[in-house]
Structures are given as C-alpha cells and as structure tokens.
Write a structure and sequence with these properties.
Blueprint (H helix, E strand, L loop, with lengths): L10 H22 L11 H11 L8 E5 L4 H12 L3 E6 L7 H13 L3 E4 L5 H10 L4 E4 L8 H4 L1 H21 L5 E7 L25 H20 L3 E6 L1 E3 L8 H11 L3 E6 L2 E2 L1 E2 L1 E3 H13 L14 E6 L5 E2 H12 L5 E5 L14 H7 L7 H15 L11
Parallel strand pairs: 1-2, 1-4, 2-3, 4-5, 5-6, 6-12, 7-11, 8-14
Antiparallel strand pairs: 8-9, 10-13
C-alpha cells in the first residue's frame, strides 16, 4: 500500500553550437555512458517483476518503456497506461535535483498500480540491453531529462548527460531492437526562445533556432537528433513540446509550487514583469497532458527499420492555448488557501525565460484529438488539495482573502 507520509541564432551561432554539442557529447559519452558491462539486474525475481509489469492485459494493448517514470509526468502517464491494461515498465535514476522523498512516494504509488520501476540510468547501455532483450517493447515514452533553467548555470554537464547523451544511448538501442519501438519523447515549449507578445502563439512551424537557455538548447538538439534517427533508421518518433505543466505530484522547483509554500509560511512571493507588463504562462493541467501523451502513443504508427525509408516524424505543442498572468495564478491560490499572499514585484532579468508563452495547439487538436478540458481554477484547486494532504497542512478556516 502507499505510505501516507507527507511530500525557449543566427546560422553561424547554430553551427557553432552544433559543433560544441558534438564535442561535449563525445566527452559525455566517454565519461558517463557505461562501458557495456551488464549489472546484476536480471535475477530471477527481478525478471519476474519486470515481465509482470510489462504484461498487456487488454486487446490490442501496447507494451511501453517509460523513462523518467518516477517524475511528475512520468508517474501520471505510467498509471494511465497501466490502468487501461497496457504493459508498462519504468526506469528512473532517482537523482536528487529535488527531494528524493517525493520521487520515492511516487514510486510507491506506481507499485500500488502494478508498475515496476527499475532504478537505473538510461545512459547505462548494459541495462537497456537487458530490458530490451527481456521485453519486446512496442513503444517508448521518453520523459527522463534534466529540467530547470537556472540549474544549468551551476551544472551544465547534467543537461548534456541527461538530455543529449541519454537520448543517443536510447535511440541507439531502439534502432537495433526487434521489433523497433515507436518513440514519443518530451521536448519543450522553451525551444521557441524569448519572443515578444506580438509573436505568439507559438506554432510548430515557427523557427526554433534561437534557444535562450542551455535547457532549451538541449531540447532543440534532441529534436535534431531524433530527426536524424528517423531518417536514417526508420524510427517512428513524436516530440511533444510541453508548456507549463502543473498539478498533483508536481515538481517542487516550479513557481506555482513555491508560491503555495510561501503563502502557507507567510513568506513573500516575487512576481516578475518587464516594462510594467506582467508575465503570462501557458499553464496546462497534468491530466490534459497525459491525454496528449497517450494519444501520441496510440497514433504513433510503426517504425519501419533501416533501409525502409523514414517512419512517422511528428512534433506537437501540448499546452492550454490560454495564457494566464502570474498575479492571476497567485489570486487563485489565495482563494483556495483562504490566505492572503505577501507579494513583491521585480523586473525580469534575462534568465532564459520568455515573458509571454502561449501554445498554438491546433495541430494536436487535429491529429491527436487533443482538447484540454481543465481550466486553471479547477486544476489549481486539485493541486492545493493534494499539497495540503501530502505535506500535512490544514486549511486555514478563519482567514479569508
């Protein structure tokens, strides 16, 4: 049972960056990727759990390897697939970018739903060999990544390791798998870079050659790498450009998460703006994102193999298409908590974040049947309920905004 314990260059710059990535990637592979030694994952009991988790329990079901399965989106996607009868095996390296206790509790939630998570790094080629030799995965949902904009200042190597090197390692294994799986993976709305308000909404046909952060650069590089594997090796690949995903079991490094924590602790909230204009984000509730992920898996088509041409290659925005200002978000949190926030206003610095973000989701609507149904008020209400339960915080009954 689950514990109830509480928890977006010029062409020259593009060429330069590509060359830099190749050099760094080579170094990263040499430094980080396992030499190919097979670790003792494949004991009898381990393999039994793996096969049980991967078992398909519905007609025409699929068998999915979910990377980053103990992450925010990975947890929700894994449960949705398992609940409808698909086979699901998770992999997560349980890094300490944020509190491990939250990831561990997500793991318990997944185990309760019958999803087995392998504690390992997908840069480990030996581990991937064991997984693919044991299970004939029809699909891969690649969500593992180093997230965050500011952390790249401290540790840029983590982004190359987790967002580029691991992508190559995974694609190398998928290209040689029999059968070749179809791949859906997490890109980001940040690939659009910093744009003015009159340049939104962001469309998949927009140029994305000016990423404004290392994180965004690694995601754009991932898109270029996946195009190459699609053309050369026939892999079916779908990239999903996520916007600001929020909801229960979310990431503590996200602004909305810190806002609720500060309100409850009586600490001030800093809201950023530029030229006296409030920033606005395209917030999308986790349940709607999961529907987009599952629809992408279901419509992915098949990989066609080396020498047989390109498999399907697609890119979709997954957002709400309804940006909301940060003050509005704070106001909704205040209403749900029955507490007033102390706020500070500061001018936004050039930190890789766009002041305005809005997704054009018409392509996903047309090809995936993607249609967000959860407004911000409803979604934040659910998030607040979860937060108060998980962290053991009571509602403040006698205070109102």
């Amino acid at each position: 049972m689950i514990r109830t314990s509480r928890r977006s260059f010029s062409s020259n710059r593009t060429i330069f960056f590509s060359a830099l990535v190749l050099v760094t990637l080579t170094a990263s592979i040499l430094s980080f990727i396992d030499s190919g030694e097979r670790f003792l994952y494949n004991t009898t009991s381990w393999e039994t759990r793996l096969r049980s988790s991967a078992q398909i329990r519905r007609a025409n079901g699929i068998s999915v390897l979910v990377t980053g399965a103990a992450g925010f989106i990975g947890t929700h996607v894994s449960i949705a697939l398992k609940t409808r009868g698909d086979g699901v095996v998770g992999v997560d390296n349980f890094d300490d970018y944020y509190a491990l206790s939250l990831k561990e509790t997500r793991r318990e939630l997944l185990e309760f739903h019958g999803v087995f998570i392998v504690d390992g790094d997908i840069n480990d080629r030996g581990l991937l060999d064991i997984l693919f030799d044991t299970i004939a995965f029809t699909h891969v949902m690649h969500l593992a990544a180093q997230v965050g904009v500011q952390y790249a200042v401290e540790n840029p190597y983590a982004y190359v390791h987790s967002n580029i090197a691991s992508m190559v390692t995974l694609l190398e294994r998928c290209k040689s798998a029999d059968p070749q799986p179809a791949i859906v993976w997490a890109s980001s709305g940040s690939v659009y870079g910093v744009k003015s308000k009159n340049k939104i909404p962001f469309s998949e046909s927009d140029r994305v050659d000016r990423p404004a952060s290392i994180y965004a650069s690694t995601k754009r590089t991932g898109e270029e790498i996946t195009q190459t594997y699609n053309r050369f090796y026939g892999l079916s690949i779908t990239g999903l450009r996520f916007f600001t995903v929020y909801g229960p079991w979310g990431r503590p490094d996200m602004a909305y998460f810190s806002f609720i924590r500060n309100i409850l602790q009586g600490k001030p909230i800093t809201m950023y703006r530029a030229n006296h204009t409030n920033s606005a984000r395209d917030f999308i509730y986790i349940d709607d994102v999961v529907k987009g992920c599952v629809a992408s898996l279901d419509t992915s088509g098949k990989s066609v193999g080396l020498g047989n041409g390109s498999g399907p290659y697609r890119i979709y925005n997954l957002g709400s298409a309804s940006p909301v200002t940060v003050p509005t978000l704070v106001s909704i949190l205040e209403e749900n908590l029955r507490m007033k926030a102390t706020t500070n206003v500061a001018e936004m610095s050039e930190n890789g974040d766009s002041l305005f973000a809005q997704a054009n989701i018409s392509l996903a609507e047309k090809e995936l049947g993607y249609k967000p149904t959860t407004d911000l008020e409803t979604g934040l209400k659910e998030f607040v309920k979860w937060y108060l339960w998980y962290y053991g915080k009571p509602f403040v009954q006698n205070r109102k905004v």
